[in-house]
Amino acid sequence: MTERRERPKVTVHVGRVEAVEQLTPHMVRVVFGGEGLDAFSTAGYTDSYVKLLFPPPAEGDPEPYDMQAVRDSLPREEWPVTRTYTVRAFDPRTRRLTVDFVVHGDAGLAGPWAAAARPGDTLRMFGPGGGYSPDPEADVHLLAGDESALPAIAAAVERLPEGRPAHVFVEVAGPEEEQKLDAHALVRVHWLHRGDRPVGAPLTEAVRALELPEGRVQVFVHGEAGFVRDLRRLLRVERGLPKEDLSISGYWRLGRNEDGWQSSKAEWNRQVEDEEAAALADRG
């Protein structure tokens, strides 16, 4: 008889909106606080992320909110919908959590919610996860991504070690979407304006044209899955960088919402890894 394993209990936090700021035409910052974040903590990763739960809390909802009880008692179509967002910043002293949202009009769930958010609104979340931070022992750092990766890149730039060079490539729609990054003197920030070109096209070209210096390179590449796949092949196969120095993942995929992407991501990753292994074997 197979012993049933119990799922680890998911702690659901409740953030109360403390402030909302329009950073750029398509980026909104929401700062959460309140006693609902008393148990929230991060492991210090610059790519920490939370799973936001929609719809927002409503009168009559059970508190504390038990995700396992919801999954056990309700059909799947009645479970809350999750959306994944980077923790832009978290202050453990004040319990204030900052999340930046890409907003494209009324499309999606989280973006429209953030655009309409006002102080006092609440939102449930669980996490955080994460696994990357700049390694002070690396000789050089390479960070690249689109708007979806900008919060994680901005957080990482603030933690890049002094005295070590870094190349940062961020692709956005146009100059109006640029943000000021708190970078030290050896960090080279390259803003790439996509315009009408396909997402990832300027970014892939720019990273391909970069001549990496000698030494150990630590890499962070995240964003749309198509260009992430291309850059992973470039860096892992063509440039021969070791896998353990690469943090590369697709945050989203053209033509899929998050539910569709997450359900297919594991298979996508297997295909990419198989292609990568075959290419490396061909190169000897």
Secondary-structure map with pairings?
Blueprint: E1 12-24, E2 27-33, E3 49-54, H1 67-73, E4 81-86, E5 89-91, E6 96-102, H2 110-116, E7 122-129, E8 140-145, H3 150-157, E9 166-172, E10 187-193, H4 201-209, E11 217-224, H5 225-238, E12 246-252, H6 258-283
Helix pairs in contact: 4-5, 5-6
What does this molecule look like?
- With 284 residues, this protein is an alpha/beta fold.
- It has 2 domains: 12-129, Translation factors (Elongation Factor Tu (Ef-tu), domain 3); 140-282, Rossmann fold (3-Layer(aba) Sandwich), CATH 3.40.50.80.
- The chain has helices at 67-73, 110-116, 150-157, 201-209, 225-238, 258-283, and strands spanning 12-24, 27-33, 49-54, 81-86, 89-91, 96-102, 122-129, 140-145, 166-172, 187-193, 217-224, 246-252.
- A 7-stranded antiparallel sheet has the order 4-3-7-1-2-6-5. The protein has a 5-stranded parallel sheet with strand order 10-9-8-11-12, with helices on both faces.
- Helix 4 (201-209) runs parallel beside helix 5 and helix 5 runs parallel beside helix 6.
- The longest helix has 26 residues, at 258-283.
- It is globular, with a radius of gyration of 20 Å.
- The mean pLDDT is 93.
- Residues 10-135 form the FAD-binding FR-type domain.
- InterPro entries: FAD-bd_FR_type, FNR_nucleotide-bd, Riboflavin_synthase-like_b-brl, SIP_FAD-bd, SIP_fam, SIP_rossman_dom.
- It comes from Nocardiopsis flavescens.
The main sheet comes to: 7 strands, antiparallel
Helix tally equals: 6
Q: How confident overall, as mean pLDDT?
A: 93
CATH topology of the largest domain: Rossmann fold
Q: Tell me the quaternary state.
A: single chain
Number of strands: 12
How many structural domains can be distinguished in the coordinates?
Answer: 2
Query: How far from one another are the termini?
Result: 46 Å
CATH architectural arrangement of the largest domain: 3-Layer(aba) Sandwich
**Structure classification:** alpha/beta
Say which CATH homologous superfamily of the largest domain is assigned. Answer: Nucleotide-binding domain of ferredoxin-NADP reductase (FNR) module
Strand content: 25-35%
Helix percentage range: 25-40%
SSE string, helices as H and strands as E: EEEHEEEHEEHEEHEHEH
Basic shape: globular
